[in-house]
Amino acid sequence: MRILGIILIILGSLGLLYGGFSYTRQRDTVRLGPMSATVEQRERVPIPPVLGGIAIVAGIALLLQSRRKSG
Predict the structure, then answer these.
(1) Cβ burial, residue 33 (10 Å; 0-12/13-18/19+)
(2) Distance between CA atoms of 55 and 67, rounded to whole angstroms?
(3) Roughly how many angstroms between the first and final C-alpha of the chain, as a whole number?
(4) At what angle do helices 2-18 and 49-70 cross, to 10 degrees?
(5) pLDDT per residue over 8-38, tens digit each?
(6) Residues facing residue 22 across a β-bridge
């Protein structure tokens, strides 16, 4: 529980700081026999700030809950 809480806090913080993540995807555009041309396309996946906040709150709740059980 404690590890999951820490992971949620880290992911929520990163979501708030960066607002999403991007990745590069390669696509075949033209194929002429054995030859082909590819294009690298950069895609962005936005993460709403509300989800980052919810992840942080859930992580804190898990940390507090695990502390109560062990203490």
Answers:
(1) exposed
(2) 18
(3) 14
(4) 160
(5) 999 999 999 999 889 999 887 888 888 888 8
(6) 44
